[in-house]
Design goal:
Chain lengths: 311, 296
């Protein structure tokens, strides 16, 4: 067993311990319903943030339409469990696949664009997805799809989150992952070196979109409903902020960003009128003083602390 | 068929008046993008702030339409300069995405700051004109639409004059062409950028007041959608190109009016973004833009 596998195993053990501790606290009621909700929200946000980081951070393709894919996942899974009466697990799988498929369809033409244009195109597409859903009466139209059973439990969210994190972590170190990183560094150079840039950009986009779909399915089956208003570009911005706050291209950064922002929202929920103001001011100040995000594109690791402080 | 034509021309009238408002907002987007390559997400909120300035000028100060629009433009210009000074200037050399996030932050700040200040309830914009309705054969236009068209036209002509025929306009064009070279020629870039923000914000504010007059209702979140759509309009015409923004705005307004007239108004927004995707795929530089090849 090489060093990497050993490290993975240690991480996995840590995850099991963390899970046991959290689950125990939820069972015994040390963590009340409010914080349980927020912990589940954190897990969902982590899935969203790391999957967006795969697109924005690793591959360098600026996408801000993540909420659209989340909506697709939320609605597909809800149709499967509510309308068709099929099991939730199937809903999760189909949500993932359908969001991924849509991501593939959308990615193929739009990823030819770059920079700001891609950002605006993905923003527009996210909105188009939402408006289309809004006009489908089968899924409730503007009033949303109601009566979704709460099938998402902490165990589901936690292990799916761990699976997504491990998948993306390993993807980054795989051959396709390195191709994605090469594209981020310099697309033309990557192209010259024989990398099929379109293929890897679409691959990263599809993977990111499918995980967003998973997150959407988890989301709708925790909050009892899938509503078009939950998937506006505001949510895409939220996810983007998590990624950028933690540091673009840093997995641990995205995780930290998701945890931090969800906590900030939770703490500010007592002051609804000030909440968004404090949130936005935090965002501006952070960008003014640390534009590369908390971790830059480095990973938080033991080594980082050994060298003293965060690089 | 007659019915169809009548409907078509009626929607054309509605579309052009809505489109000229988009054009006013899009002009600011395009100028700011042209000069500092920033998608100023807060631009739609400047338009909202302009509408509120106009609202308070007419209700509190009791002034007429023209003074109100001037007050709104001046107020928004100052707000625009302040935003640029505080939020964007320190980020001039930061990564693009960081500036974009800042812009989104500023946008949220303006929206929710206004909610805190003026309450989230929509306000009724006072009727500054007697709502006369003009009949041209079977077609109907009202005085608001006429005022919107005329004001937008005057503002656009003024802007074209400023950009093309004054020294300040020349400086603006120089900075947007090549900022470093402009600096070497002794142009004060910071001043030019401030001026661009002032001009863009003033135009957006005028758009805000006109929308208030047109729809009689304003609220703190009114800027979100028009802001995005005006950006679509700017991209449609070719971002950074001033006549392009005017054209893009009008086209977008007409298409939207047609979609809501012939299909359903719920697809209005989807149509706008659909146009955006199509134009980005087939002519990413915009209708009036030139394709520039990226060099290694």
């Amino acid at each position: 067993m090489n060093q990497v596998r050993k490290f993975d195993l240690a991480l996995f053990a840590a995850c099991v311990a963390l899970f046991a501790a959290m689950q125990g606290m939820i069972f015994t009621g040390i963590i009340g319903p409010f914080w349980e909700l927020n912990i589940i929200l954190i897990c969902i946000n982590i899935i969203l943030a790391v999957s967006l980081n795969l697109i924005n951070g690793y591959t360098g393709q600026f996408s801000i339409g993540h909420a659209g894919f989340m909506a697709v996942g939320a609605y597909t899974s809800a149709v499967i469990t509510v309308k068709l009466g099929l099991p939730y697990e199937l809903g999760l799988v189909v949500a993932t696949l359908s969001a991924g498929f849509l991501g593939f369809l959308i990615g193929l033409p739009t990823l030819r664009l770059n920079g700001d244009y891609l950002a605006i195109a993905t923003l527009g597409l996210g909105e188009i997805i939402r408006i289309c859903i809004l006009n489908i009466d089968y899924v409730g139209g503007a009033s949303g799809l109601m009566g979704i059973p709460r099938l998402t439990t902490f165990a589901y969210v936690f292990w799916i989150m761990i699976a997504v994190i491990f998948f993306i972590k390993n993807f980054k170190n795989s051959a396709p992952g390195r191709c994605c990183l090469a594209i981020r560094e310099n697309e033309i150079a990557a192209d010259t070196m024989g990398i099929n840039t379109t293929k890897y950009k679409v691959l990263a986009f599809t993977l990111g979109a499918s995980f967003a779909g998973t997150a959407g399915a988890l989301f709708s089956h925790y909050f009892f409903l899938a509503h078009p208003a939950s998937f506006t570009f505001m949510r895409s911005f939220d996810i983007l902020t998590m990624v950028v706050l933690g540091g673009l291209g840093s997995m641990t950064g995205s995780i930290t960003g998701a945890i931090l922002l969800t906590f900030i929202s939770a703490f500010l929920s007592d002051f609804p009128e000030w909440r968004m103001i404090i949130y936005s001011v935090t965002m501006i100040i952070l960008m003014l003083y640390r534009p590369q995000g908390l971790f830059g594109n480095k990973e938080l690791s033991v080594k980082m602390f050994k060298l003293g402080g965060k690089g | 068929m007659d019915n169809f034509l009548q409907q078509f021309f009626q929607q054309l009238i509605n579309g052009v008046s809505l489109g000229s408002i988009y054009a006013l907002i899009a002009l600011g987007y395009t100028m700011i993008y042209g000069i500092i390559k920033l998608i100023n997400f807060a631009h739609g909120d400047i338009y909202m702030i302009g509408a509120y300035f106009g609202f308070f000028a007419t209700t509190q100060l009791g002034v007429g339409f023209i003074p109100a629009i001037i007050i709104a433009m001046a107020g928004a210009a100052i707000v625009g300069i302040i935003i640029e000074r505080i939020a964007y200037r320190p980020m001039r050399n930061a990564p693009r995405i960081a500036i974009l996030i800042t812009a989104i932050g500023v946008s949220f700040f303006l929206e929710y700051g206004m909610i805190l200040l003026v309450s989230p309830q929509p306000r009724t914009f006072p009727a500054v004109f007697a709502p006369t309705v003009y009949h041209m054969g079977p077609l109907v236009a009202n005085s608001q639409q006429l005022v919107i068209l005329i004001s937008a036209l005057i503002l656009m002509v003024t802007l074209s004059y400023i950009v093309n025929s004054t020294k300040a306009g020349k400086a603006m064009r120089a900075v947007s062409f090549d900022a470093d070279a402009a600096r070497l020629m002794g142009i004060n870039i910071d001043k030019v950028i401030s001026m661009t923000f002032a001009l863009g914000s003033a135009l957006a504010a005028a758009g805000g007041v006109l929308v208030g007059v047109y729809y009689n209702s304003i609220d703190p979140l009114m800027g979100m959608m028009p802001g995005l759509k005006a950006f679509v309009a700017a991209v449609l015409g070719g971002i950074g190109i001033i006549p392009g923004a005017m054209m893009g705005g009008i086209i977008l307004g007409v298409v939207e009016a047609m979609v809501s007239g012939f299909l359903s108004s719920t697809f209005r927004d989807a149509a706008a973004f659909g146009i955006l995707i199509l134009i980005l795929l087939y002519k990413p530089a915009g209708l009036l833009g030139k394709n520039v090849r990226e060099k290694v």
